[in-house]
Design brief:
With 415 residues, this protein is an all-beta fold. It has two domains: 326 residues, YVTN repeat-like/Quinoprotein amine dehydrogenase (Methylamine Dehydrogenase, Chain H); 80 residues, no CATH class. It contains one helix and 30 strands. It is globular and about 70 Å long. It starts with a strand and ends with a helix. About 10% of the residues have low confidence.
Length: 415
């Protein structure tokens, strides 16, 4: 029901309807340790502390649990106080507090060291609290509710900041701050709109972002905060200008059923989407073009997708009770082609800290001298994209040192 990456991108955390939380190795897909148990009903939300040491989970059994990310052991007793299902959990940016939202219509803040509640419950919503998020500076919390409103809260005092943000005409499912904290994006509403609000004044920014008359299931900010992407019931993904609210380009079409989830790559160049059609698709964020074919393997709806922190992997969670890890950059592969047609060549390699570039099996490909490694940390810069409009590619190895003479590359290299 929920997945998240650890801050270092090495592990994936998943919460399930089977009441457990599992930790997975993002590189191998293998489970790490035993399932984390303790909840007695579905796990609705999971998150990882900023330092990666702890995992929090919120459940339909009204509790929040903290687990040691390394050992899986429970840290203290369950956090109890809600009288309804816990829909959303989040860590403060400094890791000192946990905030939870519940269908008991309250938000609670917890001290991570003592497990005790901080102040009184925030109880001004008149509907389920479906989503919560911290501002980047940790000074505010925003919440989206079944009462069709969004509220802003002061984290120090617990007081509501201003009046509720009103405008949606149905349930608000999702809320998020822009990376710079200047705007709030509110979406996932049953009224089929996305709304943007000024975080300081609470004023609406532009008109509601409206597509076709169908629901919005997921939204994501681009890393730079300039664009918003939404996944919709009408099978499309839409991109919007975060400043003006104007649609950017045409809807991205390719899925054959509703789009449940969307996410940006860390460098903002790609968008990944998961759908009820059981596939994941990757899109060029600038042109809107599909990148390669659909990623297939799930046997039921794809409910959640995320990129690893280095952008190398995509993780997906599905209603088929599985989590899959996908390489977002294809390795060396030559697709079969008919006589006279060009082959499709894709190459991806990642440099080790010592300068060696290896293939997918760990074999050595080539070594890059230290003063030539600047700029090679982004995987996208080491990619030869698919070639479909020419017959061949000529790679010039005239000045390449290879075999036993590879070390000459360092001694003869001129800056």
């Amino acid at each position: 029901m929920s997945i998240a990456y650890s801050p270092d991108g090495r592990h994936i955390i998943s919460g399930s309807e089977d009441t457990t939380i599992r930790l997975w190795d993002a590189m191998t897909g293998a489970t790490v340790g035993k399932p984390l148990e303790g909840h007695t009903r579905s796990v609705r939300s999971v998150n990882c502390s900023p330092d990666g040491c702890h995992i929090i989970s919120g459940s339909f059994n009204s509790t929040i649990r903290i687990s040691d990310a390394k050992t899986g052991a429970a840290v203290g007793k369950p956090l109890e106080g809600h009288i309804g299902s816990v829909w959303s959990v989040a860590y403060s940016p400094d890791g000192c507090y946990i905030t939870s939202g519940s269908d008991d219509r309250t938000i609670r803040i917890w001290d991570t060291k003592t497990g005790s509640t901080v102040g009184r419950p925030l109880d001004m919503h008149r509907g389920d609290v479906n989503s919560i998020a911290y501002s980047p500076d940790g000074r505010h919390i925003i919440s989206g509710s079944g009462d069709k409103t969004i509220r802003i809260w002061d984290t120090e005092t617990g007081a509501a900041v201003g009046q509720p943000l009103q405008g949606h005409t149905d349930i608000v499912w999702l809320v998020a701050f822009s990376p710079d904290g200047r705007h709030i994006i509110i979406s996932g509403s049953e009224d089929a709109t996305i709304r943007i609000w000024n975080a300081e004044t609470g004023a609406a920014v532009g008109e509601p972002l409206e597509g076709r008359n169908r629901g919005v299931n997921s939204v994501a900010f681009s890393p730079a905060g300039h664009h918003i992407t939404s996944g919709c019931d009408d099978h499309t993904i839409r991109i919007w200008d975060a400043e003006t609210g104007v649609a950017v380009g045409m809807p991205l079409e390719g899925h054959t059923s509703r789009v449940w989830c969307v996410a940006y790559s860390p460098n903002g160049q790609h968008i990944v989407s998961g759908s009820e059609d059981r596939t994941i698709r990757i899109w060029d964020a600038k042109t809107g073009a599909l990148v390669g074919g659909p990623l297939e393997g799930h046997t039921d709806s794809v409910l959640s997708v995320a990129y690893s922190t280095d952008g190398q992997y995509i993780v997906s969670g599905s209603r088929d009770n599985t989590i899959r890890v996908w390489d977002s950059f294809p390795h060396i592969s030559i697709e079969p082609s008919s006589h006279g047609s060009p082959a499709n060549l894709n190459f991806y390699a990642h440099p080790d800290p010592d300068g060696w570039v290896r293939d997918s099996e760990g074999g050595l490909l080539y070594w890059v001298p230290p003063d030539s490694r600047i700029g090679l940390h982004s995987p996208a810069l080491l990619t030869i994209p698919p070639i479909s409009h020419i017959r061949s590619v000529l790679l010039d190895f005239e000045s390449c040192a290879f075999g036993t003479s590879w070390a000459q590359m360092f001694s003869t290299h001129q800056p």
